[in-house]
Records
---
Amino acid sequence: MAAVRNNKFTVYNEDMGAFRASIFFCIALFIALALSGCGASLSTRYDLADKVAQDTRAQGGLYKEVIHASPFYLTAYLSAVPMQANALNADTSHMGRVYIEGDGLAWVSKTRPSLNPTPIDPYALRLAMADIYADRVYLARPCQYSNWDKGGLCPMKYWTTHRYAPEVVAAYSAALNQLKAKRGWTSIELVGYSGGGTMALLVAHGRNDIASIRSVAGNLDIDAHSRLHEVDLMPYSINPANFAADLARIPQNHFVGGSDPIVPVAIARSYAQKAGRSECIQIAEQMGVTHGRGWIDIWPRLLQKPFSC
């Protein structure tokens, strides 16, 4: 998640007329260069996610599936459903663990959004692959790796001003409902990386089946984050810190990089302060770890950290 300026964007449909054919090649070239401007083409980013998920050293790898959660198609990578999840015993409790990706390549500069938010490196997917928990699922963010059901390209607003909009939260909740029904879950653990931590908190609000929440370098207070980096607030997105008190009953471990200038520990502390006194919220600063470096190696150990309530 980069600190970005979230101004409104207007798309102008110019009448190119007779010039359309002559400049078509230039437009196509510009798009290709923009998509690869940060060192990885779109196809390379797709291939990397498939490669990471197919690492057979990690519990046999994860298989790919696209979940329709209107108006989005959310790309998922899933473990095979454990046998106990298929048990017909209604008294059997079975929990799923869901990893939510960060904002990905949302911006190519502080003021210029990318043309596609698919991550250059799917960091939440790497966290999921470092996890030995049997029943785990990775969910990409809207417009990453997949499209939406309105036809054409995903609107840019869903990785800029509206990345945490109510309809995005509703789509994730619908996806969780589908996963819960298909995989026999009775409860869900949420793990969010960066902006995925934001989404984990927002999705948890209003549900009664969330067993716990973990965030890694999570932006838990988007208003505090915007003010810290002196960029525009996101009025079309929901700030999870506004519901911190309501979420305070859910066990939460929030891991913050001690060397992370993008989402420093002050953001998590701002969220915790708004939650009030709660035994369930823990903030654990990891010294020497940055926003996108150092987490994978220590993740198995961090998963062993107990919740405090």
---
Amino acid sequence: GGYRVARHLLGWNVAAQAKHEPLQISIDDATLRRVDVADSKVELASDLLGMFGATLLVTPTTEIRVGDKPARLRDLPEGARVRAAYQWRDGFKIASLIAAEAPPPRPPGRR
């Protein structure tokens, strides 16, 4: 009985969750470790050793930018520094933003 009372008092039920927007989580500085175009995912590493990070699911509503230009998932350069934002939904980290630094310009005469 007590558990139901706590659920009611704290709003722990499906109806209460449906009313609230999912929490937006920001990653201010990470390295783009891997881009998986087939599964629409990116892997980010967020520390010096690359041990901590996140795998984000990319959807059609995810805003993707390289530098100051809009981009597609396949345009994201692995190893780039990125900022990202995501929301927890149904057990997944759904990316709302992935912004990568533009790669440095190539020296003339090199491909």
---
Amino acid sequence: MPSWGVELVEREGLLFKKFTDIPFTGNVNTDTQKGFVKNGKREDYWNFFHSNTGQLSGKGIYKNGNFDGIWMFYWDN
């Protein structure tokens, strides 16, 4: 169920597609984040981007919606 640029909202620790009550599953690719969500939780490799510059702000792996392993974070410059 791919969903590029989908608008998600977070409720009770889970991600939902806006205006639904079913936890989201699919790809996310927006100006500020890129990754995969399974049953409302972030999974696998994710990239986050600064909204003011579009530059990479963080990257790492999620497991069952939690940070897993080493993450790298970057200043916006």
